[in-house]
Amino acid sequence: MDIETNASYDLLKMELSLTQGQMDKYDQLSMTTKTWAVTLWVALTGLAFQSKQSHIALLGALVPLLFWFFDAYNKTYRTDYKKRRDEVQRALQMLSSGNDLPNDFQVPNLPVHDEKNVVRNMLLLHVGLPYLVLIIVSLLISVRL
Q1: Are 127 and 65 in contact (CB under 8 A)?
Q2: In terms of Cα–Cα distance, which of 19, 10, 3 is closest to 86?
Q3: Is 99 helix (H, G, I), strand (E, B) or coil?
Q4: What is the pLDDT of residue 145?
């Protein structure tokens, strides 16, 4: 490896570490978001049962909706970092195979986030299903109270 290739290789390794760290951060945020959503939902549901007031159960349906949006927002950022991490992995494989990087490949090149994908991410089954279940159960409880 020449000096330029070695520098690119080192930068790619650092960028790979950074992008993976960002993905890990957003994974942790997603788990924390789900935990808070369930915690607040359980508290409101318990209060609705205790007080026998259906409007509190309906409020319990709004809590998961808010957290669902936050989770989808985090998923948007995570997806952007995953895309860049995969690009960096391919570039590292090219360099380690003795190939040159494509001329248009830049190191570092951290992602620019597009918030338009939040709604699309809300509709992903693995993002929305836990929240949908909580919302449906809240609606059923409000009807029964």
Answers
A1: no
A2: 19
A3: coil
A4: 85
The number of domains in the chain is: 1
Domain containing 9: what range? Answer: 3-144
> Which residues, at least 6 apart from 14, have a Cβ–Cβ distance to it below 8 Å?
108
pLDDT digits (tens, 9 = 90+) for 71-104: 999 999 999 999 999 999 999 998 888 888 878 8
Residue 118 half-sphere exposure toward CB, CA atoms < 13 A? 12
As given in the structure block, the two tokens for residue 138 are 């809240």
Q: What is the mean pLDDT of the chain?
A: 91
Nearest-angstrom CA–CA distance, 10 and 4: 10
Write the CA distances from 144 to 48, 54, 61, integer angstroms: 11, 8, 14
Count Cβ atoms within 10 A of the Cβ of residue 129 and give its class: 0-12 exposed, 13-18 middle, 19 or more buried: exposed
Query: Cβ–Cβ contacts within 10 Å for residue 71, how many?
Result: 26
For the chain, where are the alpha helices, taking DSSP H only?
A: 3-51, 54-96, 118-122, 125-144
